[in-house]
Amino acid sequence: MWDHADALLLARIQFAFTVSFHFIFPAFSIGLASYLAVLEGLWLKTGKALYLDLFRYWLKIFAVAFAMGVVSGIVMSYQFGTNWAVFSDKAGPVIGPLMAYEVLTAFFLEAGFLGVMLFGMERVGRKLHFFATCMVAGGTFVSAFWILSVNSWMQTPTGFEIGANGQFLPGPSWIDVIFNPSFPYRLLHTVTAAYLTTAFAVGGVGAWHLLRERTNAHARKMFSMAMWMAALVAPVQIFLGDAHGLNTLEHQPAKVMAMEGHYQSHPEGAPLILFGIPDSKEKRVDYAIEVPKLSSLILKHDPNAPLAGLDTVPAADQPPVGPVFWAFRVMVGLGFAMLGIGLWSLLGRARGKLYDWRWLHRAAIAMGPSGFIAVIAGWMTTEVGRQPWTIYGLLRTADSASPLDAPAVGASLLAFVVVYFSVFSIGTWYILKLMDKAPQPQESGLEEGPVRTAGITPGPHQHPAGKGA
Predict the structure, then answer these.
(1) In terms of Cα–Cα distance, which of 403, 394, 405, 385 is closest to 90?
(2) Are 194 and 378 within 8 A, CB to CB?
(3) How far apart are CA 173 and CA 180, in angstroms?
(4) Strands 272-279 and 168-170, how do they pair?
(5) Using one digit for the tens of pLDDT, what is the confidence trace for 66-115?
(6) Sorting pLDDT into bands at 50, 70 and 90, what band is 25?
(7) Torsion of CA 437, 439, 445, 451, to 10 degrees
(8) Are strands 160-162 and 168-170 parallel, antiparallel or unpaired?
(9) Most buried among 32, 60, 157, 237, by the most CB within 10 A?
(10) Environment class of residue 289 by beta-carbon count within 10 Å: exposed (0-12), middle (13-18) or buried (19+)?
């Protein structure tokens, strides 16, 4: 069935599939780890059992999501060697150490404190347990730091030298490699997206239980906290997205041209195309709904500023417009929808109706998965918009793949699809089942602890030798 398939296309589909599946879970666990730290900190500060109940409720969900994120991420590292061996050989001296730093710092930090966080509430002091929770939350951020540094270097490579064998070698300063031109913008934009993803997931769950029982104190608290995040952080994210877009215009102008649907240059001010159907064959956007000169105003802060189009970029260097154009609009549209929910919640709060407006709760439930969709759309905008390059302007995707035949890549892709949908569908179903149950007073945690395998210490339900029932 793969005889006439393109091995490169299959390798790209395989990586896109696995990275999209993986990215969902870290985007949730980054924000959820910080939310857990806030809940535990509020419990320690106020002594209110409600915060401890919410902590234990979301801790169970975090444990499942974190585990699925780790498992789904392992596969990606192997693909660098199987499907992208040429890229690994050429870029390995630069990106290899950065990914190793992620393991040595973030992964070890998370692994060292995760067990205390999950099972140590009754085994260590409160302050030590809170410290462990903060370390896990910090570990998720450090992990994002290194991974986004790698990805940003591939987008805006700096601080490297080309060796005699064609390899990319680190220059005299790793600072130039790590803090490449797009990294600060990408880090802030992505981490903030993770916080919003968690906020709307938490808000959706809170709204779900408010529709069932309006007086549920736990549902009220989680919904209120989520709506504060939406109201305060969504405007910040829009600002960060604008700054990231201006940085992209400076360093990757072809990507912005694809995002905007600008096939042609506009010497006297470019319109903002709200919607339309890109036609790359005819080099136009059909049925375009546009606002004259607004794109120039946003990107250049001058409505009459000229903007170059894809007609200035060689055809071989142009990204595919359709996927980038639509992914960008999905991301931006959801971002403004998040802002709308946040403002709506502020109005409800001001009128004392935050827990009574049923349509606000229904809208929050509908927006529950919006963060996950937005981060995937943003990732598509970033990665597809970088094409046809793996290292922007320096190494083409077509020159990065392993010399594999299509049947070999196709078989592994099919295996990934079957395994991922079977395994992670069960995990997602279990998370939704946990969310469907409302948090209760004196919520049970994970204090049963991990299973003892050595048999040295009796389990909690076992009787010591000689004292059987």
Answers:
(1) 394
(2) no
(3) 11
(4) unpaired
(5) 888 877 777 777 787 788 889 988 998 999 888 888 888 877 787 788 88
(6) confident
(7) 0
(8) antiparallel
(9) 32
(10) exposed
